[in-house]
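Morning, I've got a small favour to ask if you have a moment. It would help a lot if you went through both lines with me. I owe you a coffee for this, so here goes:
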Amino acid sequence: MDITGDAKQPIKWKRYLELCKPNVVLLMLFTSAVGMLLATDGNIPWFELVVANFGIALSSGAAAAINHYVDRHIDVEMGRTDSRPLPQGEIKPINAIIFAIILATVGLSILFFLINPLTSLLTFIGLLGYAVFYTMYLKRNTPHNIVIGGAAGAAPPLLGWVAVTGEINTEALLLFLIIFIWTPPHFWALAIKRRVEYAKTGVPMLPVTHGVEFTKLHILLYTLMLLAVTLLPFIIHMSGIIYLSGAIALGIGFIISAYKLYRDDGDRLAMKTFVYSIKYLTALFGFLLADHYARLFFRGLM
């Protein structure tokens, strides 16, 4: 595979890494690792933490690279994405696809042969969901794109759980549900800020098709729904008071941020809400993990 953009300017490996959206993948791997740890009763599943997360990372990177390839004509029109390798002509489109195929093949093979076939299958479905169903169809055809397409991004904690247990159960699906409900308010906040660019490229994001005020209302409604959903781990005895306290505090914080955005004229608070949503998800899964090990510790004392 040629890794040069032109004869005079060799492409650094970092530009290929950028195709994988590493910041997004790191958050996915964190939630995947939490899913793995929650699925155990104390013994850290080191093999799955390393090997399964490596396979998930490669597969997620492949999906991101395909997203770069498909969106390259849109990316060049948007200030947030016009510096990406493909719009800049630093990586040839065909090389991006070859790179994605290699990553997907290696990642899915690792999961199939070294972890279990179910994890590989679910990862493959997630890859198709994001790279094909969302990027090629939903994103361009419906303002509900991120609601439906968010299922792919919600998969990592489920994949982590299945990598350790080999099965899907209620707790794993609940972790999936939390991220599924979190995704729309998270992304819509960014879409409000970038609505002019989305309109310019013809992408029917919610603030483009239904307006900013409508989008702000739905962000607020989803944060209310999210708070309710995040109480479920405590209700089904999956977690205890440490998680419950954190979930309530974080959820109220998200609602307050969304309410301020809703009441404010314009979009000046949109990015603040977007950034909070990332911190929210990281902290929420951190509380899940802290609660899990605290309960194991106190159980061991009894």
